[in-house]
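Reviewers asked in the last cycle whether our approach scales beyond single polypeptides. To address this, we selected a multi-component target totalling 673 residues and predicted its structure end to end. The input consisted of the following lines:
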Amino acid sequence: MYRYVLGCALAAGVAASGIAASGSANAQDSVKIGLVEPLTGSVAYNGKSVVEGAKLAVEQINAKGGVLGKPVELVIEDGQCAPANSVNAVEKLVQKDKVAVLVGAFCSSATAAIMPVAAKYKIPLVTGVSSSAALTEQNNPWFFRAAETDALMAKAFAKILANDLKLKSVAYVGVNDDWGRGGVEEFSRDLSALGVKTALTEYFDHGSTDFFTLLTKLRAAKPDGIFVAAETQDGSILVKQLQEMGVQSKVFGVGSWATADFINLTGDAAEGIYAAVPYVSSVDTPRNNEFVKAYEAKYKVKPGKYGAAGYNALNITAQAIAQAGSTDAEAIRTALGKTDYKAPNGEYRFTAKGQAYGFDAVLVRIEGGTPKVVASSPVEAPQ
Amino acid sequence: MDLFLQFLTNGLVVGVFYALSALGLTLIFGLMRVVNFAHGEFYMLGGVVGWFVTTYLGLDFFSGLVLVALAIGSFGWLVDRFLIERVRGQGEEPGILLTIGLSIFLVNITLLAIGPAPLKVARAITEGPIFLGPVTITKMRLLAMVIGIALIVGAHAIIHRTRLGSAMRATFQDPMAASLAGIRTKQVYAATFALGCTLSALSGMLLASIYSAQASVGGLVSLKSFVVVILGGMGSFPGAIAGGLLLGVAEALWGGYVATGMVDIIGFLLVILILVLRPQGLFSIRAERA
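The resulting structure, written as structure tokens, was:
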């Protein structure tokens, strides 16, 4: 009960501040895009990065005159990564703010909950983050995923991991939700197919702080490599404690690993760990350098995976609205299907199921406090 | 066997941490009978203020700890005099609503001021593993355990060996009689609340240097602390230690031999068992109070 009361009150508080921040332009002279991200709770920090990326995109779009001759207005709601709160947020965005397109909701479980709501109101929904493979298998025509899935990442990197790191056995550790479990399943399937043995599979809850019990089991299993699916908070504490427990295995992870904050929080324990990420700021292409420069000028930090995700999702959405020539939902949906967006990290297109492909994913190794690109591989359309 | 020893050590360390983080609640909820839902937020403030004083004021860990104790202690005093005092003697519900409101306020002010990012608190000593035969523990964890035990013993001594402690116990047993005997009960209430907040903040900073400080940690800390206090018995320091250790070891063994993914289930299972079998808690002297 307490948590429920607290949750509602928090959501209300953040909602109020979000509206206040987004200004008072009225519905007639702006194109509204609704953004649902976790702004409180254990992944709030990553959610905030998505919002930062999205705001930068909107700023750049509006500097060039907006879309359909009107400025784009971002309406931000806190979904807390929780299905129920995310649904409430979407209901509010649709009913009260009358947004043209929805972007969100970070955690796969929350996105799965808002997909039917988007379909009910016939409003296109673009996610830049949620990576559980099941989402695009639901054949929801209003849903588009401008992100990698665990399966696509696993496919892109399994061979590199097995051959280049010479792994014979791997322990899998993931956060106890759709995304973590999905990541562990996909990577263990693809690595097992290459003859890598599974030493251990364990999960932990969001917001866990003490991993010694898990790491005791892990150390006893003596794996060559450890696969971790975790976000910044959980992941950085886990990696620190790996070092404290004296575990020597190679660590590779998915999640927000190659960011400056992760490295800062983790300290020297981050040295030598690998991360498979859809985006890293050190990729040297003109489009990416331009994006990193703009992001750094605005936020004083280099963009991470989630900053880029928010930026890309907003650009894809705005481009689709411009293509559609109106805020008619059906027209926007058709335009989204024909997306050809040149992102800092490659080009985004969508399959018939709404899964993005064509952009580059990278494997990085953290050396001397910066992520160095080890390998990069374009994400192919799933069969 | 080696594995069991490591699980047991992990459990004992985490158990002491649980006891430590529940100390403030033992005082405020167990002794004062204020159902303090803002407990976790005082813990959180300890970590966040600790991060601020070590990062921006350049203090070392121990001076920082003293400053945090003073700052949060004074804040707790003010909260009692200006907020809690207004609802005192009106039953538990107004206090519950007040502390829920306070917790929401504190979390959102912190989010507004420093954002949701996890923060790194400077460590007291350089960290490194220590290997004791088959068991691994780290220096910082050992130090935190020592400081934790010292705080528990210190708090116990204040309550049972000092004049202030006698005044506290007298006040919470019968405020009217205490008042008639010349005890300034308003000061005693405020002092107890301030002491409780100080203990929460100290544990918050100590544990933040091992994990990390963050605006949103409070909810989980409050929940676990209520589990510890109810397990151990209201207002009992030996009870808080026993409750903490029981929870820590039970979680470690459950996580070790069953699954780490469902570890939170065990604490609540223990609470249900205790409430059914021994509702006054493991160490409580009396079940009912005048």
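Chain B touches chain A through 46 residues (CB under 8 Å). We regard this as preliminary and will revisit it once experimental data from Aim 1 are available.
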